[in-house]
Every structure is written in structure tokens, then in C-alpha cells.
Amino acid sequence: MQTLPMREFTLRGVLLGALITLAFTAANVYLGLKVGLTFASAIPAAVISMALLYKFKDSNILENNLVQTQASAAGTLSSVIFVLPGLVIMGLWSGFPFWQTALICATGGTLGVLYTIPLRRVMVVQSELPYPEGVAAAEVLRVGDAQRHVQEASSPSSSSSLRELGWGAGLAAVFGLFSSGFRVLGESVSVWLPVGSTAFRFAAGFSPALLAAGYLMGMAAGMAVLLGVVLCWFVIVPWLTAAATPEAGQAISALATQLWNAKAKFLGAGVIGISALWAIITLAGPIIAAMRAQPAHAHATGAAGHDETDVDMPRSWMLIIGLVALAVLFFVVNHFVGQYMPELASASRYGLAALCVLFAAIFGFLVAAACGYMAGLVGSSASPISGIGIIATVLMGLSILGLSALFPSFHTSLAGKLGVVLVLFMVSVILAMAAISNDNLQDLKTGYLVGATPWRQQVVLIIGCVIGAAVIPPVLDLLYNAYGFAGALPRADMDPKMALEAPQANLMTQIANGIFSGSLDWTMLGAGVAVGLVIIAIDWTLRKSGKGALPPLAVGLGIYLPPTIGVTLTLGAVLGYAIQHALKAYGARHGKDWIHAAEERGLLLASGLIVGESLMGLLIAAVIGFSGSNAPLALVGADFSVAPWLGLAYFVMLAAIFYRRVVRR
């Protein structure tokens, strides 16, 4: 008897994905403006989708996968808030015009989806990148599907799998509630060691999701991240601090942190930039081959004997959608230029808009490939989108400056403030492409593991971008009018202490201003490129000799990211190494089946940690948003000095439980 194929693309799935999108996008916009961080929404979307769709008897794992794909794309698109508020901070906008903002997000996101299509086979199917959230989401979907059918056919393994997933989710959710909610557990510990006129920093975070991401990404990447942390906080920052003069009353630790933000992060951005370029160069051949292998027309996707699980969107669809997106983007940029540079003649305005769109399209593809690789390496949550934003701001700023120098007709219009805001406007488009690429390859990895149809996923990814683009402008307007941004308050009677920090938007604005005023410190970016070239050479030598690897992007992440993230990723990788070592020792006695079951337990526990922290983060974000308070659930004040050590104790206990549950007899 032939089994009917499962329904994958459904109207109810699209509608459910749209509803989940509303919540996730709003929560990410708020958190991103407040603390400069967003959370990956694929796993929470998968859990919510299963809980709701499984009420329908004909629902299935593939339909659930498309729902989480759509919702996660829209939630990730909110990363444009790392740049767009800069237009308000600069005083150009007094709010967020709906159509301009929405079309920036929609066109950038759509192009980001298209850019990931030729990368799928190279980075997902043929690559050994771990894709932490993608693998975790697949396990969530598999376990949920197996548990749903446990009554139809008794399956002890299904119940056991759900139990492991539940353990991980519960432990992470408890930590999230008591740290971000009740504020009883600290989220990190940081110790400074002053030595003369400088200082060294020892720091670690306690995030269960980051521990899980480190466990999934492996030892080589974990050690590379640690190398970046050591270079940053034991070489670069101490050297910069020793050469600097603190302000009156400024502590050495405060000076060191200031120099890390102002200088060392740019060195890390240089390492990330050259490493990303090297990754693109090495992947150029396979990417071109993958593009040639795509079907030219839609009917080719249904060819007899063709594997549906390996069929991407046809080239004809990509071409049509891409041209429409570029045309809309040209219309938006041309309107923006005409609105704020009315002195330009029509021909000059069209030419400037066309060149800006061309630059954005080219830079967008480069950062899409880089972000896809980094997301595959350390996960979407830990991938430094803001670092990519820095690189894009520098590249776009230099391009606009070059146009101003080459074409006298542009010079007056692009001088000063207007040149800066045009850079920010275009970087917001590039960042939309980067953010979507950062998430989409995770979604395609999930689909690859559960047997989904790639072209259907790619279609709903575009739908998710369009829906998310419609949500972002009103949410931004609401938050701006309610709280204001640091450096930009909509009303004179507002309390500056309540303003949302919008840290990345302020940083991008400073960089763009620095480029046009000539005050940007290029030395650190150049030093980062030099360091990156050395690390690339070491990595190439190690791989060629078969003695290991030193992923240069991971080293750049260790320099750029706060040590509370980098060290935790490394601890997760060390935990994974210790577990693998124990499994080899016990496996000689217990056999291959026991090893396979233990590895599955580890994967499920790691998935649970990511699930639990994501869901609790979403819940607390909703409480904060509705209450209007920074800490509505706090049981103790900010002076509760024991919190970091209680957080450390919980983290150690969590790692011990993880080890024992995986390596149990």
C-alpha cells in the first residue's frame, strides 16, 4: 500500500507562523534596543507550533517545520534595529515612516533569502558545520512528533527522548527565571586583576544556551574562541590600557572596558572581516557549482525521480523575485535621496540611487556568506551580527566617500550629515540581508534533518520576511515614543534614565560619523586584518598537515564578543570533549549501541537547554514589555552581591548534571 505524502505547505501553517511572528518580532525589537541582544526564535517557534498544530490530526513534522521557519525568519529580521534608530539619533527622522522602514526590511530580507539558496548545498548538506540551533530545532521536532504517536505504537525511546529534552529545558528555564526574572542568580562573573597601569580580566557567563552551543560546535572552534579571548583580554586590552591615560577618578577596569569597546572590538572586526573574505574565496567554486546545479524552471522541481528533499527554488523564480526586490529597493532609495537631497538633478539622483543599490547587493552577498558560515559555526544567537554591521558601515562609508570624490555633482549633497545618514540607510538594508542569512541556513539545516522540501522552506522564509517587515515599524514607533533612545528623546519632559540604550545603533552612527569626519581609528582595523591573515595561515597549515584546525572566524569572535560569551562557548566545547572522551572509554565495554544512545542523550539535553532559555527569555521579555518596568519580577536589588556566585554554583551543577545524564550506565 503506497503511503500518501505528508502535507507541508498549508494555509493554517502560514497563518500560525504569522501570529507567532508578531510576538517574536516585538520581543526581539525590545530586547535589542534595551541591551543590544536578540534571541534565536526557531526553537521556541517549533515548540509553540507543535503545541498548537498537534490539535489537528492531519498535522505533521514537515508542517511544523515550515511554521518555525517562517516565524524564525521574521524574528531574526528585527536585527535591523542595530542600525535604523541611528536615523532618529541623527535627527533625520522624528519617528519611523512605515513604508520606508517596512520596504527596507522586506527587500533586504528577501534578498538575504535568495543569497542563502546557492549556499545551502555547500554549507548545509556538504559541510560539517554543527549548526547548533538548527540541529536542536530538528531534535525538538522529531521528539515532539515521536511523542505524539507514542499512543499509536508504544515507543520507550520516544518517552526517554522527551524526558531528556524536558530535563534540559527545565534546568535552563529555571536559570532564566531566577537570573533574568528574579535577579537572584547572576548571569556572569567578572574579576579584574590590576597590574601597575594596566589590568587583566577573568570573566565567564552562565548561560545554559551558550553552554549547549559550545557543546555542539566542537573543540576546535571552542579553542579558537578561547584564543581570541586570551589575545583580547591578556594582550590587546592590557597593552592599550598601559598606553592610555585614565580620566580623573576613572578606574583601570573602566578604562580597559572603554578601550575594548572603542578599539579592541575593531581589531576583532578586522579579523572577522578578512576571515569572512577568505571563507568566501574558498567557497567560491562550490557556490558557483551549486548555482549551476539548480533547476532553471519551476517544472523541473517536480521532475520524475527527482529527490524533493534536495530541490531548491528554481533559477527563474530567483531571478524574478530578485529583480522585483532590487526594483523596489531602488524606488525606496531614490525616494530617500530625493527627499533629503532635493538639490540633486534627476539624472544624478537616479545614478546615486542605482550605485547605492549595487553596492548594497554586492556587500549583501559577501556578508550573507560570512554570516551563514558563522551561524553554522557558533549558532545564530552567538553570531556577531553587529560586528558584520561594523564592517558593512565601513565598506559603505568608504564607497559613499569614493562617489563623493569621483563625481563632483555628489560632493555637496554627500558632505557631512547627509552622507552619514545615507550610509546608515543602506547599511540597514545590508544588515537585513545578513540577519536573514544568519538564521535561514539554520532553518535549512533543520529542514535537511527532518526531510523537508528546501524550495517550500525558501518560499515561507520570504513570507516571514514580508510579515516581519510590516511588524517592525509600528513596534519601533511605539517603543521610541514610550521610552526614547539614548541621545534622542521624542519629548522634552521624558526621563533620560528610562531611554532605551540602542547600543549598536549609537556605535554605527559614531563609526559613520568618524569616516566622514576623518576621525575613525583605522589602525585597529588594519591590525585586525594582519592578525587574521596570520591565523588563516596557521589554520591552513594545520588542516593541510592533518594536525587539526584553528577556525579564524572563531578567533575573531573571541576578540569581538564579550568574554562572558566567548568563555562560556569554550566551556561548552570542553564539556563536549570530556563527554566524548568518557564515551570512548565506556564504549569499549558497552558497545556501539550504547555510545549512539549516549550521544543522542547529549544532543537532546543540549537542545533542551537552548529551548528552555529561549522560551523563558521570550516570557520575561513579554512581562517587561507589558509592565514597562526594567525588572518587574526582581526579588532583590542590584546590590545583591551574592548573585554572581550563586549563578556560578548553578552553572557548575548544570554542567555536572549534563555530564552524568549523558555518561550514565
Summarize the structure in short.
The protein has 665 residues and is an all-alpha fold.
Please outline the helices and strands.
Elements: H1 11-35, H2 42-53, H3 61-77, H4 85-89, H5 98-116, H6 120-125, H7 132-148, H8 156-181, E1 188-195, E2 198-205, H9 208-217, H10 219-243, H11 252-293, H12 315-340, H13 346-378, H14 385-406, H15 408-414, H16 417-450, H17 454-483, H18 503-517, H19 522-545, H20 552-560, H21 563-590, H22 592-627, H23 643-662
Antiparallel strand pairs: 1-2
Helix pairs in contact: 1-2, 1-3, 1-17, 1-22, 2-3, 2-7, 3-16, 3-17, 5-12, 5-13, 5-16, 5-17, 7-8, 7-16, 7-22, 8-22, 8-23, 9-21, 9-22, 10-11, 10-20, 10-21, 11-13, 11-14, 11-19, 11-20, 12-13, 12-16, 13-14, 13-16, 14-15, 14-16, 14-18, 16-17, 16-18, 19-20, 21-22, 22-23
Structural account:
The chain is an all-alpha fold. 73% of the residues lie in helices and 2% in strands. The protein has helices spanning 11-35, 42-53, 61-77, 85-89, 98-116, 120-125, 132-148, 156-181, 208-217, 219-243, 252-293, 315-340, 346-378, 385-406, 408-414, 417-450, 454-483, 503-517, 522-545, 552-560, 563-590, 592-627, 643-662; strands spanning 188-195, 198-205. Helix 14 (385-406) crosses helix 15 (408-414) and helix 19 runs antiparallel to helix 20 (552-560). The longest helix is centred in the middle third of the chain and has 42 residues, at 252-293.
